[in-house]
Amino acid sequence: MIGIIGGSGVYEITQKADSCSKKVVKTDYGEVTVSILEIFSKKIAFIPRHAQGHSIPPHKINYRANIDALRNVGVTQIIATNSVGSMNIDMAPGSFVVPNDFLDFTQNRIKTFYEDKVVHVDVTEPYCPNLRDILDRSGDVILGGTYVCTEGPRFETPAEIKMFKMLGGDLVGMTGVPEVTLARERGICYNSICIVSNYAAGISSNTLTIDEVFDIVSEKEHDLLELIYNFIKNAEDSPNCECHHALNGAEV
After folding, report:
1. Residue 29 annotated as part of some ligand binding site
2. Selecting from 3.40.50.620, 3.40.50.10490, 3.30.70.20, 3.40.50.1580, what CATH number does the domain 2-245 have?
3. Where are the domains of the chain?
4. Do the annotations mark residue 200 as ligand-binding?
């Protein structure tokens, strides 16, 4: 089963599915409402990351519950969507970027399922290369880029953006971590479609607003949904993917 964790602009996917039902999934970290869809005769599990109405801020999202809920309904591959600011002029607003690495600047989030034993999961390749290749075949995407995750909910300062650029960052957002590493700890393939909504602070000449983010996402909604539909159509199960064996050699 394919899991989709949707940010802004993806909620419409439930209305265009061949069938849709909702299921409340219990996890050790709380209950999550998951939409079970059928698209191209494939089962899809969809979670709106910020809940209906975009009501949960990024630093309050129950990332562990979301990932475990998808695992509990049988998901083996996850595609996430993330709205981001760009620090790279080659990744202009409106672009879809598939990242290949990240920098974590979050501060107060629980980042692991393993709080009672020692587990060191490898993240040499944090985003699944198999899913990256499928996304590459499914639409107009930019492959590669370093995603910088900040705590939020405020936007970043120009000085912070300057620092992130010096460290090699290309994109900045508030939701990609710990989602990506929690999926790795559960042995689930994970990749992201980063929707560039604006240039980051100090690069953009405008004051940053959430309206700007929603405007670009709304403008690109059709293209984003088309990319996701093509991904679903092209997706294949990859039982031998290294992502599924991420805990091999990780536990002490």
Report:
1. no
2. 3.40.50.1580
3. 2-245
4. yes
